[in-house]
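[job 4471] stage=fold_predict status=RUNNING
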Amino acid sequence: MAFTNEAARGRIVRLLESEGFSPAGCFYAGADVIRTVHKLGSAAVICGFKLRDMTAGDLAMSLRGSAAVLAVTTPVYLDLIGGENLFKLATPVSRADFFASLELIRSFERNHLRPPVTRRRTDEQLLVERAKALLMDVNRMTESEAHRFLQKKSMDAGLRMAETAQLLIDSYKQA
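[job 4471] inference complete, writing structure tokens
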């Protein structure tokens, strides 16, 4: 969420919280929004027309492919901005229109944006590294060959890479 107007931001936060939503952050500047969206992987952003460092249109362009942006402002300003991931809502706005717009951008996010990148948990990563080390040591594979081998076996078996790594490690223990 990004608004330079404190009163507008407070109204939107109260409105969201009344329906059980909690913003991941409240910002004044688009750069802060962009950083947060990149940390989250994707997002639905609600903002005013003008932020401290950019307009809602600039923000939408910067977040194309990773966030849907809902600009809530006067009708005059809405005519000045656009973008494939930018949705517009004119003020004053009714509660029903606000939540209908929010559902629209959440639907856009689910259907058109790339899913957030998930990092492999550390214990799973260590398991994969151990399995690759075994393959490199015992089978004289390079690191990239061992990695490709684990990937292929995982895909063929329909397992996560960490599960395949554990099976491989177990098979070497039995031998």
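[job 4471] summary: The helical segments are 6-18, 30-40, 56-62, 75-78, 95-112, 122-138, 143-157, 161-174.
[job 4471] exit 0
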